C-alpha cells in the first residue's frame, strides 16, 4: 500500500511539474533548442531560405525567439510584411516580459518547474545583443519601405533596450554571486568556470558596430550630424581597424568643425580626403554566413551531500565548440573585386553573451541536480524501487542544456564604402547582382545577405551625404 502511494506521489509530482510548464514546448523538457532547429539551420547555411522557414519548428522556445527567427528568415525571403509582423510580435513579447508585475505568477511556476527539469522551462530572456538586432531588423524593414523616421525610432529604441537588458543581466549576476556564497558553492562552481571555454571580453564582443554604423548613417541622412557623429565614433571604438568607419568619423569631424578630433584622427588614419565634386556615396552592408549555434557540454561537478559524502554530479551546459568560420568570398562592384572589412563578428558576440551568463546558469544547474538527487535518494531510502527508477529516468531525460539563442543571425557583417560618379552600378557575386543608383551629393545604401551560394539584397537612396 505504501509503495503504491509513493508511486502515485512520484507520478503526481511529475504531472505537477509538467502542468506548471504547460505553456512551453515539450522540446524544452526532453531536448534542447539547437537540436530542434538543426534542419532549419542547415537549409539556411545552404542558402535555402524557404526550406529554412518550412523546417523551423513552431515556437519551441516561445514568442520572443520565434518572432526573431521568423522575422529574420522572412526578411531574407523578401516577405517584408511577414518579417515586420514577426519582429513586432517578438518586440511586443519582450515588452510584456519586462513588465515584472504581469509575469510574476506565471514566471514563478516556470522557475519552480526549472528546479526539477532544466533551464529551458524558464521563459526566454533575449540577450542585449539580440535585442539590438531585433530593432536593427525592424529598422531595415522601415528603410526598405523608405520610412526614415520609423527607422530612426528603432535606432533610438535599440540603445534603450540594450541598456535595460545590460542592467538586468548585471543584477542577476550579482544576485547569483551572493547566492553562491550563501549556498557554499563558490569554490565548486569556480572550478567549473575555470574549465569552461571563455570568449574573452572585448569591446567588439559586447557592442554592435553594425548597429552603431547604421544608426550614424541614418542620422547623417536625416541631417542630424551631432547624433551621427556620436554613433560613428561608437562604431569606430568597436571596429578601430575599419577604414570606412574611420572615414565617416573624419568626414563628420570636418563638417562639425571638431578641430581636436580631426588632428587625433589624422595622426592615426591619415588626413581626410574630401570626395570629388559631383559624386555620390555608395555604402554596402554585407551580412555573411550564419551565426554558430551553441551545443551541449557535459562535465562533472563534485559536491558534498547531507551525509558529508563527496558526490559526483553531471552538469549539462551550452557552449560553443571551436569552429572555423565559413564565410563567402569577395563581392564585386562593376566587375571589380572589393575588400570589405568587418563591422561586427556576431559569433563573438554570441559567445561573449553566453560567457557572461555562465555563473547564473551554473548556479541553477547545481541547485537543480542536487534537488533531483535528493528526490531519488528519498525514494531509494524508503524502499520505493519504482520511484527510484522513475526518478533516475526522469533526471537523465530532463537534464538538457539551454541552447536557446537567435540562430538565424549572420556570422559576420562587413562594410564597404566608395564615392562614385552618378549612374547605375552593379554589386555582384556568384552570378547574382543588386543594382544601385548613385546620385550627386546623395547616399545610396545597399543591403546584402549571403548564405551558401545565394545572395539577396536591395538598395535605397537616402538623403544628402
From TrEMBL:
Signal sequence bounds: 1-24
Residues in TPR repeats: 209-242
Record-linked SUPFAM superfamilies: TPR-like
Keyword Signal: yes
Lipid biosynthesis as UniProt keyword: no
Keywords on record: Lipoprotein, Signal, TPR repeat
Stored InterPro entries: TPR-like_helical_dom_sf, TPR_rpt
Protein name listed in UniProt: Lipoprotein
